[in-house]
């Protein structure tokens, strides 16, 4: 894929190279790195409050995002609306964080991923990995300052959102474009998505197999495959209007689920749902609650929830799935309910990220 001037969303226009995994497959191959110096990698992630007091400003930043809140005259109304919504929601959301330790673990986990990735990359090149959170520290402008201080020659922007959406990856890229100085000469490479990367798929399969182990032990035989366990894949929801505008998120989620099931070759029943609805209008469905109610109505007794769109454990896995959904499952008389552990610092996932970076560098074609 040739180097192009690419506009991602409405703001981010730089000389860059857009990297996508081919639907026909992605070859994982070692790459020599003679002469490659001062390569920077920026991991994009949502971020999360690091204290209960940070919940309201975190929500304010979220609802101030022009890629999230966009309507006629939004520029005038966005900040007052964000102040109103964040103040009204803060108390309820603080209770959620209080139940998982009083803060989000996403910064700690993302910085761990960055350290693991940097260590992996240094087998091949001189690399430095930075973290840019969208809505809480370390924020994008903090990461920009670090990148400029290290004077990298090539910069790979790598979202920790395997499936592309304008409201996640697109938002992070737009914010980077607003904060990064336009006159600074650096070769920027953008990894747009990697929903079908084989190492990412293998990392998910490995985690699902680990998640099935508790069910295997309750069968009375450690050798018996728990084939009656329903695999409930859960992805973060988005408004249907986003999908109708051409956003590939839903199609990529469905492709990831298909590839994971093919690679895992489990005989288990499965379904896909969407969680974390946070606004008006029609959102992708069925919702997590609707899916659990349907499973109970069909007398499914054992369920493993697979958070398919998340690469780190945070409030939406630790609270929404592991506490709220578990309580609902108990009320619905689902006898055994487990949630798959996030990828976090899974070695296979770190290898996938390293492979994406290496194939994004000059002189290598990811396809």
Question: What is the fold named in CATH at topology level of the domain at 198-339?
Answer: Rossmann fold
Structural category: alpha/beta
* Strand ordering within the main sheet: 1-2-6-5-3-4
Order of helices and strands: EEEHHHEHEHEHEHHEHEHHEH
Which residues sit in consecutive blocks of at least 5 with pLDDT less than 50? 1-15
What can be said about the biggest beta sheet? Answer: 6 strands, mixed
Q: What's the count of strands?
A: 10
* Structural Rg: 21 Å
Strand content: 15-25%
Helix content: 40-55%
Termini separation (Å)?
8 Å
- What is the typical, i.e. mean, pLDDT? 89
Task: Describe what this molecule looks like in 3D.
The chain is an alpha/beta fold and 367 residues long. It is built from twelve helices and ten strands. Among the domains are: 47 residues, no CATH class; 142 residues, Rossmann fold (3-Layer(aba) Sandwich), CATH 3.40.50.1400. The strands form two sheets. It has a six-stranded mixed β-sheet, with helices on both faces. It has a four-stranded parallel β-sheet with strand order 8-7-9-10, with helices on both faces. α5 links the parallel β5 and β6. The radius of gyration is 21 Å and the shape is globular. The N terminus is likely disordered.
Summarize the structure.
The protein is 42% helix and 17% strand. By secondary structure, the chain is an alpha/beta fold.
What's the arrangement of secondary structure elements?
Blueprint: E1 4-8, E2 12-20, E3 39-45, H1 55-63, H2 74-98, H3 106-121, E4 127-133, H4 140-150, E5 154-159, H5 169-179, E6 187-193, H6 198-217, E7 230-236, H7 240-244, H8 249-264, E8 270-275, H9 288-297, E9 302-307, H10 315-318, H11 320-331, E10 336-339, H12 347-360
Parallel strand pairs: 2-6, 3-4, 3-5, 5-6, 7-8, 7-9, 9-10
Antiparallel strand pairs: 1-2
């Amino acid at each position: 894929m040739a180097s192009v001037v690419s506009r991602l969303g409405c703001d981010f226009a730089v000389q860059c190279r857009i990297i996508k995994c081919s639907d026909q497959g992605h070859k994982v191959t070692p790459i020599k790195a003679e002469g490659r110096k001062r390569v920077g990698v920026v991991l994009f992630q949502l971020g999360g409050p690091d204290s209960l007091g940070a919940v309201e400003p975190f929500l304010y930043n979220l609802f101030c995002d022009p890629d999230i809140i966009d309507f006629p005259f939004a520029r005038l109304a966005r900040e007052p609306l964000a102040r109103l919504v964040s103040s009204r929601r803060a108390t309820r959301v603080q209770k959620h964080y209080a139940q998982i330790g009083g803060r989000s673990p996403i910064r700690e986990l993302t910085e761990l991923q960055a350290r693991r990735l940097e260590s992996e990359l240094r087998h091949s090149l001189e690399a430095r990995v930075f973290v840019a959170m969208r809505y809480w520290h370390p924020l994008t402008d903090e990461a920009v300052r670090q990148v400029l201080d290290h004077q990298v020659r090539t910069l790979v922007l790598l979202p920790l959102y395997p499936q592309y959406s304008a409201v996640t990856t697109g938002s992070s890229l737009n914010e980077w474009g607003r904060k990064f100085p336009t006159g600074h000469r650096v070769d920027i490479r953008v990894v747009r998505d990697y929903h079908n990367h084989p190492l990412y798929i293998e990392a998910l399969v490995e985690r699902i197999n680990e998640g099935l182990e508790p069910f295997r032990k309750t069968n009375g035989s450690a050798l018996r495959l728990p084939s009656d366990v329903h695999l409930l894949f859960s992805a973060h929801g988005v408004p249907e209007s986003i999908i109708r505008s051409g956003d590939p998120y839903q199609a990529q989620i469905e492709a990831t689920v298909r590839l994971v099931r093919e690679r895992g070759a489990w005989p288990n029943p499965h379904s896909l749902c969407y969680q974390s609805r946070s606004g008006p209008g029609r959102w992708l469905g069925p919702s997590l609650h609707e899916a659990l109610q349907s499973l109970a109505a069909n007398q499914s007794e054992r369920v493993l929830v697979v958070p398919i769109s998340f690469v780190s454990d945070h409030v939406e896995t630790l609270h929404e799935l592991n506490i709220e959904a578990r309580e609902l499952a108990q009320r619905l008389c689902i006898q055994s309910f487990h949630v798959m552990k996030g990828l976090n610092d899974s070695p296979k996932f770190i290898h996938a990220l390293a492979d994406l970076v290496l194939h994004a560098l000059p002189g290598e074609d990811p396809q």
